[in-house]
Write a structure and sequence with these properties.
- The complex is a heterodimer of chains A (about 290) and B (about 375).
- With about 290 residues, chain A is mainly α.
- Chain A has a single domain, classed as Orthogonal Bundle (ABC transporter involved in vitamin B12 uptake, BtuC).
- In chain A, helix 2 runs antiparallel to helix 3.
- Chain A is globular.
- Chain A starts with a helix and ends in a 13-residue tail after the last helix.
- Chain B has about 375 residues and is an alpha/beta fold.
- Chain B folds into two domains: about 200 residues, Rossmann fold, CATH 3.40.50; about 120 residues, Response regulator (Rossmann fold).
- Helices cover about 45% and strands about 20% of the residues of chain B.
- Chain B has twelve helices and 15 strands.
- In chain B, helix 8 links the parallel strand 8 and strand 9.
- Classes of the chains: A mainly alpha (about 290), B alpha/beta (about 375).
- At the A-B interface, helix 1 and helix 10 of A face helix 2, strand 7, helix 7, helix 8 and helix 9 of B.
Amino acid sequence: MQLLVNALIAGSLAALIAGGLAVVYGVLGVFNLALGQLALIGGYTTWWLYQVLHLPLGLSIILGLACGALVTWVTFEIAVRPFFKHHRFLPLVTTIAWSMILDGLILLVFEERPRSILPGLKHIYEFSGIRISLEQGLLILATLVILLSFAYVFHRTSLGRRIRAVVQHEHAALSLGVPAGLLHGFLFVLSGVFAAAGGIFIGIDQSLTPTLAFPLTIKAYAAIIAGGKGNLWGAILFAYVIALLEQLLVGVHWFGAFYVPAGYQQTVALLFIIVILLIKPAGFFGNSSRTA
Amino acid sequence: MKRLLACTSFLAVALTACQPANSDVIKIGFIGPLTGDAAAYGVDTLNGVQLKVEEINASGGIDGKKIQLVPEDSKCNGSDAATATQKLTGVDHVVAIVGGSCSSETLAAAPIVEATKTPLMSPLSSSPDLTEAGEYVFRDYPSDALKTKAMAAYFKAEGFTNVAVITENTDFAQGFRQSLAKDFGTFVFDEVVEPGTKDFRSLVTRLKSAEFDVFVANGQSPATISAMVVQLREQGLTQLAITHDAGQAEETITIGGDGVENLQAINVPSLGEETAFGKNLVEKHGKPRGAIAFAGHAYDAVGVLAQAIDEVGTDGAAIQKYLNDLTSYKGVVGDFSFDDNGDVVGINYKLIEVQDGKWVELRDAPVQ
């Protein structure tokens, strides 16, 4: 059971980032490889506001998210918008370049040392042998609330209908008066806010380091590829599945005989994705056309 | 092919000829992790190196020649260290190198300095593998082979029989793990994780059902070591946790907070801020990122190299012989010399503990 909770903690973080990534791929058809850096910027800004300027934690988080949104918008204007209509692989290159620039900026502004938004022990609660900190519980809840409210907007409101219209056929949507360009920017920024929330999550639960960005991006990609490219719910589900696999893999006494060495934790999770792709090349929930 | 070879060799000759015969400075290279999780080591050692270089230059240099420092970021990994060392020996033609900090760096630099006969003095690498790394590889920091003997002796004295270890998969931490296994015996819990892992929850969950007396946080950097210990405490495990020089840093406390209270470490003596060297360092470069001792060993690394250059000149082979024959160098970390393998002789260990958010020296940790 403790393993399940551990998986929820790690999975929530991955789900936030993968969810944002899937939305962007679903609507714009581009991969944003600077997402890990955007997560770090959100986390680091919150750390700076809370630990250096001593603002209240809630305000720091909101401003951290806002800063994440701002930088994501700049990313969109500089590295994605001028390119993605020409070829959908162009932003792959431009966002890699942009991610390196952001890496440099993070080093310059926040220095290379590890930072923790809430250092030290958290408030631990124990329920029938399962130990979870108050902060972790709140983070899991917050992730669920964010994802569910997004689902509500996406499937139950007129804004969501417009987004889905742009996904299905951009030109048809434009001719019906749906501002596709504006929605592109909005969704891209939204994905950055999700990522920034993920970064703040790491900063609260563990610690932030500038080298963390790339592994974060890779994990999120694994989830969206396994879940079916562009399928939001598939990506989120698989973010949790991968986290659970990683936990079960090293945490369970397999067949009562042996433990898998912890060094193989990530390898086996990625192997699992290869197996899924061998069986269903479009991803588990994928189909041939793009959906969001 | 032959023509290509001729062309490139011509080019090489031309390039060498282009090297300015700049003989009024003595170039000393530096490699160490200036960015990344392990940056505390690189920044502190570089500060120590700079402090000594400034002092030597202020007092007129070596034989009237100023020392010029060429620092490179080797990011705590072998490939960046190899690139940096290639550049220092091939392009800058440094007389000697101080570094690296992480053992991965020094191990990668070793074959290059051997080939170019450039003496290298590591101020911080402690992997036992470095003992055999080559004639030109020295260190003024003791090998883990001794540190694990001190730790094993401590465990035996305390009556600890069940030891749990989590190791980060780097040259340094793996070297420490194998060396401790040799000196102590088998561990009841022995897991190796990928470098940079910060989520140890599944392993700690397993530790809850294991019986152990002491937990060894065998990571490579303060960030991972504090993550291990904090997550251990979060799961309500109260056994003694112990680490080594990689964890005995200020950052472990800034990140771990009350979660690392009573964490112990076996390490070389720390130089306090009240020592003359500590005061001087803090005044010039501010509080250390990791520990004053990191800077102290780097300071002495430059000092002993400068003394060698002063005595025998800038020839690599001559410096190497001088260091091997040296009977004692009076440094800020103590009086030391080198054995035939280039390992330091004369530095002892201490048992250190976090008390009220500060590292406090408890007592000597004898090797036997």
